[in-house]
Design a protein that fits this description.
Structural class: alpha/beta
Number of domains: 4
Shape: globular
Distance between the termini: 55 Å
Strand content: 25-35%
Number of strands: 26
Number of helices: 16
Bound molecules: adenosine monophosphate
Radius of gyration: 23 Å
CATH class of the largest domain: Alpha Beta
């Protein structure tokens, strides 16, 4: 695979160049290559199942990247799992993926996974494997073409996360587009803000590694401590910034976040949620030398498929920013309810057709058949996003279902409801997003409680929230709980979400 080949070339041409920096921990291209070979060789010797998935658990450690590369060199896809994901959800991922190996770059109690036939590699064992000088791995073993390169689990409406399989060809198509159409092929420093279990991280990880750049990690501890975050940024020499708009908005609250802090910054890449005109305007003001790009795409089509540069002129003529044009090897169609193409200007569902569309959800044929199909010999994905085209530019118009983005995190309201309903204290529930300035600020759960003995509502809320921490990542747990005797119904007997939504608007 060309992507792996280019990392190989960099590791032999520039072995001492930094590939990844996470505060004190530094990984060179030379070590990345050698240590991932050691791991690949170990995996090949100990695997009983060709192409079985490998879970890589942790939070932005250099060993995570080595483990990704080691897995794909051994011919296995990896599943990145961030430590923000609770144990019960990881168990679901283990069950659904039938993973063979579980690599831990952070500590987690192995006893939780004792009942699964997993080959566990804890951090100590990993360090010894990475340094064992056993690089017996051949290029023929690398993942290629239709083999899965990685599998990313996203929120699923049935109550369980679903694993999006991204093939070597999918990823190559994405990386080729990034390197060709964006001014990022400059061997500079890239910001790595998104943890690896979110596909936004792929937008910096592989373009950086295939072009000789250095990734600069922003960990959850830095984000929790803005003083440390901005000190680190000041020393980062970042040229290419990739993040959600929410993260940039948070940084913009610091007045010193400007060209003085990041004098090398040339490119902002945004994806994953609406980029507001105000955020783009502030960035162009504070970073007059930098270009701002808005990209759009779902995990199922490998990170992003459309892009547009947001200039001062764009801001003069737009209050809602476009998401741009589709990459040249793909098509983005707007269709009606029956799947018929709509003329320019009309709003419909966005369909992505082309080589970066996933082969589907791992082990989930029904879900895959519902969302994916073949069009003129190419894979196509029904995004569930609404949009329209005007003057050749695409505009995003929100979702057609109950998927939402809260502060950049993708989630299905139905998955949250399904897990709240598991609580012994809950009889029924509906989760409603609460908006501020056209953006979701937080989630409000409306609950019909079961019989309980709590005196106060806040005690009931904390009991439900406590149960949820074992089932859902923190960012999916509604901030507010409200209690009702019954949920409002529409005339045809469905829960009336609109009534509840209007209640939280008041
Ligand atoms: P994810 O799979 O986490 O990348 O989330 C994909 C979803 O995020 C898309 O289906 C859209 O609903 C939303 N999204 C991605 N990029 C943008 C964008 N530039 N503007 C608005 N929404 C976006």
């Amino acid at each position: 695979m060309r992507l792996i080949k280019s990392i190989q070339k960099l590791s032999s041409d520039h072995p001492n160049r930094f590939a990844y920096v996470n505060r004190g921990s530094v990984l060179t291209y030379g070590d990345l290559w050698k240590q991932s070979d050691n791991l690949a060789s170990y995996i090949q010797k100990h695997s009983n199942q060709a192409k079985s998935p490998i879970i890589v658990y942790g939070h932005m450690e250099p060993e995570m990247i080595i483990s990704f590369l080691g897995s794909v060199k051994a011919g296995h896809p990896y599943i990145p799992v961030d430590l923000s994901i609770p144990v019960d959800r990881i168990k679901k991922i283990v069950e659904s993926s039938k993973a063979e190996f579980f690599i831990m770059t952070e500590e987690i109690d192995e006893a939780h996974f004792a009942s699964y036939p997993l080959k566990k590699i804890n951090n100590e064992e990993l360090v010894s494997i990475l340094n064992n000088n056993d690089t017996d791995v051949s290029e023929d073993q690398w993942v290629a073409e239709e083999d899965s390169f990685y599998i990313i689990y996203t929120s699923g409406s049935t109550g369980n996360p679903k694993g999006v399989q991204i093939t070597a060809s999918n990823l190559q198509s994405f990386v080729d587009w990034m390197i060709t159409d964006f001014p990022i092929n400059n061997q500079g420093n890239f910001l790595n803000q998104a943890p690896f279990s979110f596909d936004l991280s792929v937008m910096d990880l592989y373009p950086a590694l295939s072009s000789g750049g250095t990734l600069y990690a922003v960990t959850k501890d830095m984000i929790a401590n803005p003083k440390v975050l901005f000190e680190e940024l000041q020393h980062s020499n970042i040229k290419v910034w990739t993040s959600t708009p929410s993260f940039a908005q948070m940084c913009l609250m610091e007045p010193k976040f400007s060209n003085n802090m990041l004098p090398e910054l040339e490119v902002f890449l945004f994806c994953g949620e609406v980029l507001s005109a105000e955020t783009a305007r502030l960035l162009l003001e504070r970073f007059p030398k930098a270009k701002v790009f808005n990209l759009y795409g779902p995990t199922e089509a490998t990170v992003a498929v459309t892009m547009v540069e947001i200039t001062k002129e764009t801001l003069e003529t737009h209050t809602v920013l476009p998401i741009g044009r589709c990459k040249s090897d793909s098509q983005l169609l707007i269709v009606d309810n029956e799947g018929n193409p709509l003329p320019e200007g009309e709003k419909g569902e966005m369909i992505i057709v082309g080589p970066s569309v996933s082969k589907g959800y791992l082990g989930e044929k029904e879900l895959t058949d519902r969302a994916f199909f073949v069009k003129d010999g190419e894979r196509a994905y029904k995004t569930g996003d609404a949009g329209y085209i005007k003057n050749g530019f695409l505009y995003y118009q929100g979702r057609l279902d109950f998927q939402v983005k809260v502060h950049g995190y993708r989630m299905e309201l139905e998955e949250i409801e399904c897990n709240i309903n598991k609580s012994q204290h809950v009889e029924a529930c509906v989760v409603v997003p609460v908006y501020r300035d056209d953006k979701i600020d937080y989630l409000n759960a409306f609950v019909v409680p079961a019989k309980h003995s709590f005196e106060k509502e806040y005690q009931l809320s904390s009991a439900i929230k406590k149960e949820l921490t074992n089932l859902l990542p923190k960012y999916m747990i509604p901030r507010k709980f409200s209690y009702l005797n019954q949920l409002p119904m529409t005339p045809n007997g469905k829960v009336d979400r609109k009534v509840l939504a209007s209640e939280v608007m008041a």
